[in-house]
Automatic annotation (TrEMBL):
<keyword id="KW-0460">Magnesium</keyword>
<keyword id="KW-1003">Cell membrane</keyword>
<dbReference type="InterPro" id="IPR020550">
    <property type="entry name" value="Inositol_monophosphatase_CS"/>
</dbReference>
<keyword id="KW-0997">Cell inner membrane</keyword>
<feature type="binding site">
    <location>
        <position position="94"/>
    </location>
    <ligand>
        <name>Mg(2+) 1</name>
    </ligand>
</feature>
<feature type="binding site">
    <location>
        <position position="94"/>
    </location>
    <ligand>
        <name>Mg(2+) 1</name>
    </ligand>
</feature>
<keyword id="KW-0479">Metal-binding</keyword>
<feature type="binding site">
    <location>
        <position position="223"/>
    </location>
    <ligand>
        <name>Mg(2+) 1</name>
    </ligand>
</feature>
<dbReference type="InterPro" id="IPR050725">
    <property type="entry name" value="CysQ/Inositol_MonoPase"/>
</dbReference>
<feature type="binding site">
    <location>
        <position position="92"/>
    </location>
    <ligand>
        <name>Mg(2+) 1</name>
    </ligand>
</feature>
<feature type="binding site">
    <location>
        <position position="223"/>
    </location>
    <ligand>
        <name>substrate</name>
    </ligand>
</feature>
<dbReference type="GO" id="GO:0050427">
    <property type="term" value="P:3'-phosphoadenosine 5'-phosphosulfate metabolic process"/>
</dbReference>
<feature type="binding site">
    <location>
        <begin position="94"/>
        <end position="97"/>
    </location>
    <ligand>
        <name>substrate</name>
    </ligand>
</feature>
<feature type="binding site">
    <location>
        <position position="95"/>
    </location>
    <ligand>
        <name>Mg(2+) 2</name>
    </ligand>
</feature>
<dbReference type="InterPro" id="IPR006240">
    <property type="entry name" value="CysQ"/>
</dbReference>
<comment type="similarity">
    <text>Belongs to the inositol monophosphatase superfamily. CysQ family.</text>
</comment>
<comment type="function">
    <text>Converts adenosine-3',5'-bisphosphate (PAP) to AMP.</text>
</comment>
């Protein structure tokens, strides 16, 4: 396994950010056209935006990192299998397809690099919100209109998760409410609840705008990797039910995640286990 230094990780974060941004126009073109929706074999929705964005991202990754395998949501759904290596890329070209369909803008383009089971760099772009989060060793956010490239460093704002206050701000899925989430949050001193779609929930915790994000429903590794990379770089943690960090490259589980809790403050994660 290559041990990336600070400069290398930041360079990778910038690369992944540029690639996520490149897919933005294709997604927004379909969004503006109110395109038809089809279904995958598991019944989940897919749009032309998913397919176009994935093609753009995978093409650019193949040219920029030709020796690094790419695992992407739509190619996997189509039955194309990629051997999982110690170092590989995870792509979710459109996380929050339900948000895309309901047209609330809370969908994201996600690209992450995994090394040794951990997300070491990632980018989350919300084109309808013109907002980009990206991270290597450090996490940043900036405003990027669709069709624009990554601005210079002066436009980046470094972000960090906050120490948990006495009354927590919890963020949960807008489209996937469930009894387990309600039961978990009922045990915590929650003073405010927010709803958000897609990987935006990780980003809210990473920016210190929320403290905890529980997820008990099913997710895949590409759903979480980029947001997890941003949150980890911002000082947060994403833990499984056993208290272990969420791991990547789970070939035996076909890249499925179990339940997890994303925390901004690791001390709060330990306190409320």
């Amino acid at each position: 396994m290559t041990d990336l230094n600070h400069t290398a990780r930041e360079d990778l974060a910038v690369l992944l950010a540029d690639i996520a941004l490149a897919a933005g126009p294709a997604v927004m073109e379909v969004y503006a056209a109110d395109a038809a929706v089809s279904s995958k074999s598991d019944g989940s929705p897919v749009t032309l935006a998913d397919e176009r964005a994935e093609a753009i991202i995978c093409d650019r990754l193949a040219r920029a990192l030709p020796d690094t395998p790419v695992v992407a949501e739509e190619m996997t759904a189509a039955g194309r299998q990629v051997a999982i290596a110690d170092r590989f890329l995870l792509v979710d070209p459109l996380d929050g397809t339900k948000e895309f369909i309901t047209r609330n803008g809370e969908f994201t383009i996600n690209v992450a690099l995994i090394e040794g089971g951990k997300p070491v760099a990632g980018a989350v772009y919300a084109p309808a919100l013109a907002r980009l989060w990206f991270a290597g060793d450090r996490a940043f956010v900036c405003d990027v209109p669709v069709g624009s490239g990554l601005p210079g460093r002066a436009a980046w704002t470094a972000i960090g998760a906050r120490a948990a206050p006495e009354r927590l701000v919890a963020v949960a899925s807008r489209s996937h409410a469930d009894a387990e989430t309600e039961a978990f949050l009922a045990r915590l001193p929650v003073g405010e609840r927010r709803a958000a779609g897609s990987s935006l929930k990780f980003c809210l915790v990473a920016e210190g705008l929320a403290d905890v994000y529980p997820r008990f429903g099913p997710t895949m590794e590409w759903d979480t990797a980029a947001g997890d990379a941003v949150l980890r770089a911002a000082g947060g943690v994403v833990l499984t039910a056993s208290g272990a960090p969420l791991a990547y490259g789970k070939a035996d589980a076909k890249l499925r995640n179990g339940s997890f809790i994303a925390w901004g403050d690791p001390a709060a994660a330990a306190r409320f286990r």
